[in-house]
C-alpha cells in the first residue's frame, strides 16, 4: 500500500491526522502530510482517512 496527499487541495481540517496519526500529521506549513507509509496494521486507518477526507485529496494505492 502507498498513501499520498495532494497537498495543494488540503484544507487543514486535521481529520486524517486524528484518524490515523501513525501515518498522517499536520506539517509545519499547516497542511496534512504523510510522515510514514502504513504497514499492514495501519492500512485500515489510512483507508478510513482517505474515505473521510472532506476534499478527497488522500490517495491509497
Blueprint (SSEs and pairs):
Blueprint: E1 3-5, H1 15-19, E2 24-26, E3 32-34, H2 43-52, E4 58-60
Q: How is this structure best described in words?
A:
The chain is an alpha+beta fold and 61 residues long. The chain has two helices and four strands. The protein has helices at 15-19, 43-52, and strands spanning 3-5, 24-26, 32-34, 58-60. The strands form two sheets. It has a two-stranded antiparallel sheet with strand order 1-4. Strands 2-3 form a two-stranded antiparallel ribbon. The chain starts with a strand and ends with a strand. The mean pLDDT is 97.
Strand order of the largest sheet: 1-4
What structural class should be given to the helix and strand makeup? alpha+beta
- Taking all Cα atoms into account, the compactness measure Rg is 10 Å
Distance between the termini: 6 Å
* Helix content bin: 10-25%
The residue-averaged pLDDT reads: 97
Number of strands: 4
- The secondary-structure element order is EHEEHE
Q: Enumerate the spans where pLDDT stays under 50 for 5 or more consecutive residues.
A: none
Q: β content, as a range? A: 15-25%
What is the approximate shape? globular
Describe the largest sheet: 2 strands, antiparallel
- Discrete helix count: 2
Amino acid at each position: 500500500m502507498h498513501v499520498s496527499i495532494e497537498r495543494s487541495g488540503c484544507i487543514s481540517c486535521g481529520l486524517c491526522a486524528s484518524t490515523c496519526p501513525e501515518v498522517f500529521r499536520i506539517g509545519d506549513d499547516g497542511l496534512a502530510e504523510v510522515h510514514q507509509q502504513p504497514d499492514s496494521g495501519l492500512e485500515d486507518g489510512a483507508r478510513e482517512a482517505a474515505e473521510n477526507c472532506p476534499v478527497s485529496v488522500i490517495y491509497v494505492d
